[in-house]
Design brief:
Length: 101
């Protein structure tokens, strides 16, 4: 798993995140988790790339928990068990893509 924390003082807008993903050759889609909504453990046969556009997401990746905030990006390797939950009182909006080699 690779986590990149957003370091710039100004957070990226959704359109900018889409452009960043497309520049990497990815096909981005938007995913919204309502406040408190969770997705149980699951796996994919491909790498999952996601960047939080707004809100917060608690990820559990193979037993390691981390909180992602707006601007943070994670790459979850193929076949890695993971779950997620929107943290806090606001919805969590993510831009996601599947990376297939």
């Amino acid at each position: 798993m690779l986590v990149t924390r957003w370091q710039a003082p100004r957070l990226p807008e959704k359109a900018q995140i889409y452009m960043m993903f497309e520049a990497e050759g990815l096909e981005p889609v938007e995913e919204i988790l309502s406040a408190g909504q969770s997705v149980p453990d699951h796996r994919h046969p491909f790498d999952e790339v996601r960047m939080v556009a707004s809100g917060q997401m608690l990820l559990d990746i193979a037993g390691n928990q981390m909180l992602l905030r707006a601007g943070d990006k994670v790459v979850i390797p193929a076949n890695t068990r993971h779950s997620k939950r929107a943290e806090g009182t606001e919805d969590c909006v993510c831009i996601c893509a599947n990376q297939i080699y």
